[in-house]
Write the structure tokens for this entry.
Amino acid sequence: MAWLIAMLALLIPAARAQSDVDWSQAQQVNVLMVDDRFVPDQLTFRHGVPYRLLLENDGNDVHEFTAPEFFADAVVRDPGFLSQDGKEIVVQPGAAVEVELMPIHPGTFQLICANHDWDGMVGQITVE
């Protein structure tokens, strides 16, 4: 029973935070995913500010925007866009995915393409 209360204590603030977000004020951030790099590969957000993150895959391969710690510390308007238990967004070649989110706390987070990090497809997310 204690574990259930603990889980509810974690979920209720996140649900309340999402309902308090004015998504109409979301700022646009575009990231181009090309074969083996993010453009830009250094992203900066402000905590408590909603964003509309547009990920465009201009490469020939499937690419992932993998940032588990970042997503875990953000309100994501539609978590259905997240895969791998909320760790990443998968974008097919020639496709685009738009996700609305709001970072909660300042911090620095690693960004990788789970399939291409070995070839340098890495970056960093800073939340101020």
Notes: The chain has one domain: 2-127. Helices lie at 2-20, 68-72.
